[in-house]
């Protein structure tokens, strides 16, 4: 019996249901143009799909298909790319995902008019990955987090304006009442260290959430951690108290 997982994506193969197809990935380059219509057709034939990844491609025709696709068993959806592509702003309008648990997006391409309605059609998200966040483009980081009150895992990667983004994120986590009250895992990747006050806010947030926010991993690609000795000592105290804190430059970790 032929395994559905290895069928090629071609027009002659898009007639029969694909009940064994659970993961579908398209990984390419931003210069790779793919028509949305055969992909839409294939997804409609895969009722048991649980994971969908679309990365570094250019989808043509996403804004021309008004039919919303229901993916009844999809748990993980990841949309990634190094450039802000036009189709990113339309893709979420194409899906209804009643069992979604995890979502990954390049937020520089997604605006509130597509993001918020998509979340309203989905269950409360548990895991969220933000890639290359750019404040001021349609939705703020506060606006994002306010739409995700049930989040337990947050991953955020930011390069050019990372200092601003992470300073805002750490300040929000230290607020009362708490933003993301159920957050237990935070992964962050940055190219430059935020200010000492930002690290102090993160320490304050962790100190108040030590029984819930139990795992922190922050990777910095620059050569300096701009945090005060008192803040570093506070992180070490939380580490000794059982909080899993990992802050450093790639493999050269400061706290393990």
Automatic annotation (TrEMBL):
Organism: Roridomyces roridus
Name of this chain's protein: Uncharacterized protein
Lineage: Eukaryota, Fungi, Dikarya, Basidiomycota, Agaricomycotina
């Amino acid at each position: 019996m032929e395994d559905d997982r290895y069928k090629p994506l071609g027009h002659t193969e898009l007639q029969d249901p694909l009940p064994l197809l659970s993961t579908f990935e398209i990984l390419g380059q931003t210069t790779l143009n793919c028509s949305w219509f055969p992909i839409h057709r294939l997804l409609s034939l895969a009722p048991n799909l649980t994971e969908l990844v679309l990365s570094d491609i250019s989808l043509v025709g996403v804004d021309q298909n008004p039919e919303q696709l229901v993916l009844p068993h999809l748990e993980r959806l990841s949309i990634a790319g190094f450039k802000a592509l036009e189709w990113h702003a339309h893709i979420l309008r194409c899906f209804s995902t009643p069992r979604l648990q995890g979502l990954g997006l390049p937020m520089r391409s997604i605006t509130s008019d597509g993001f918020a309605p998509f979340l309203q059609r989905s269950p409360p998200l548990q895991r969220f990955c933000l890639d290359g966040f750019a404040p001021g483009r349609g939705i703020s980081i506060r606006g994002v987090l306010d739409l995700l009150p049930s989040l337990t895992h947050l991953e955020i990667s930011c390069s050019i304006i990372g200092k601003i983004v992470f300073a805002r994120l750490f300040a929000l986590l230290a607020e009362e009442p708490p933003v993301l009250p159920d957050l237990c895992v935070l992964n962050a990747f940055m190219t430059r260290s935020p200010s000492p006050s930002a690290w102090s806010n993160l320490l304050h947030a962790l100190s108040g959430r030590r029984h819930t926010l139990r795992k922190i991993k922050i990777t910095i690609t620059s050569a300096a951690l701009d945090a005060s000795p008192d803040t570093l000592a506070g992180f070490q105290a939380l580490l000794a108290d059982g909080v899993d804190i990992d802050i450093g430059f790639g493999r050269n970790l400061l706290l393990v």
